[in-house]
Design a protein that fits this description.
Elements: E1 2-6, H1 16-30, E2 34-38, E3 48-52, H2 58-67, E4 73-76, H3 79-88, H4 90-99, E5 102-105, E6 122-124, E7 143-148, H5 159-164, E8 173-178, H6 184-196, E9 200-202, H7 208-216, E10 220-223, H8 232-240, E11 244-247, H9 250-256, E12 263-264, H10 269-281, H11 283-296, H12 302-315
Parallel strand pairs: 1-2, 1-3, 3-4, 4-5, 5-6, 7-8, 7-10, 8-9, 10-11, 11-12
Helix pairs in contact: 2-4, 3-4
């Protein structure tokens, strides 16, 4: 089968959408299909469109459906689709969703916000991660807490740095952040934070190997987003057995589970600081986080994601 996989351009090739699209392309090729990645649909023949992001891919979806009204579209709903554009700009977002034969979301709580008439089309596919090639070795010199994600408003990216300021003077917690700043303002804020906060270091955009290396020496990871569709970095952390401290939002709870012990309210610096202090001082708390992650880790196995895509293609008549 000829598949065109639409993923809109971002400011870096390591956006969450782009990374997911590249992995799905590998999965679909492994299932025997020919896959062409594009930022928009140019009219070339295809048997199926897989589109990332309802709002950003709306023109491509309409163009494909106008040319091939009987051929299927599988639409992956991003976090900004279901937690932002569905309310802020519903017309193109809903049009894309209505045109698609199947919708894919990345976290178990997504059905709560997808319109009722579309829920029968919705399938949850958890993003997978490969186990690390080397054993995890947390740094012995400091309590390294990683923050992995681009610096933009929705990520609330400096929350961990601000929480680290509230820790006792003797604390060994250090915040190590990687990810590209989406604006000059965010870059300036990160540099200013480094100058005034001895516990914080921003490394800018780094290759995937450097991200894995950071996770391997981390004692924990913080994801402080105000909104997420289902961050692959949670999959990576769970598979690597790196404890996660996460903002209590649907996109995180839908991956980590309602009973996960490492949540803090969105934007709550003091509560995150309290969790960081527990992480450093309470081995029993760290063990609880580890056990909870171990229960969720099977969700993120590559074989499970491959099987989900195989089932989805079979549903639309393309085994």
């Amino acid at each position: 089968m000829r598949i065109v996989l639409i993923t809109p351009e971002g400011p870096t090739k390591r956006t969450g959408n782009r990374v997911a699209a590249m992995r799905w392309a590998r999965i679909l090729r492994g299932l025997g299909h020919r896959v062409r990645l594009a930022s928009d649909y140019d009219g070339q023949p295809a048997d199926l469109m897989v589109a990332v992001h309802a709002w950003r891919s709306s023109v491509s979806i309409e163009r494909f459906k106008a040319k091939y009204p009987t051929l299927p579209v599988i639409l992956q709903l991003s976090g900004t689709d279901i937690y932002d554009y569905l309310h802020r700009d519903p017309e193109p977002t809903l049009r894309s969703m209505n045109l698609a034969e199947r919708l894919v979301a990345l976290n178990d709580y997504a059905p709560r916000v997808v319109p009722k008439h579309l829920r029968k089309r919705l399938r949850i596919i958890h993003q997978s991660a490969k186990p690390p090639s080397r054993p995890r070795k947390p740094s012995p010199r400091a309590v390294i807490v990683s923050v992995i994600g681009h610096l933009r408003d929705v990520k609330d990216p400096l929350r961990a740095a601000e929480a680290a300021r509230l820790l006792p003077p003797a604390s060994r917690v250090r915040i190590e952040q990687v990810g590209r700043a989406y604006s000059r303002q965010w870059a300036a804020r990160a540099r200013a934070e480094m100058k005034s906060n001895r516990r914080y270091r921003w490394h800018d955009d780094v290759p995937a190997a450097a991200v894995r290396s950071l996770l391997a020496r981390s004692h924990a990871m913080v994801i402080s987003s105000m909104s997420e569709g289902g961050a692959n970095v949670i999959s990576e952390a769970a598979v690597a057995r790196v404890p996660v401290l996460a903002s209590h939002i649907d996109g995180n709870v839908g991956l980590l589970g309602a009973d996960y012990p490492g949540y803090f309210p969105v934007g709550d610096t003091r509560e995150l600081a309290r969790l960081l202090e527990r992480l450093e001082r309470e081995p029993a708390f760290v063990a609880r986080l580890g056990k909870a992650l171990a229960r969720r880790a099977p969700l993120f196995r590559p074989a499970r994601e491959i099987a989900a895509w195989r089932r989805l293609l079979k549903e639309i008549g393309h085994p």
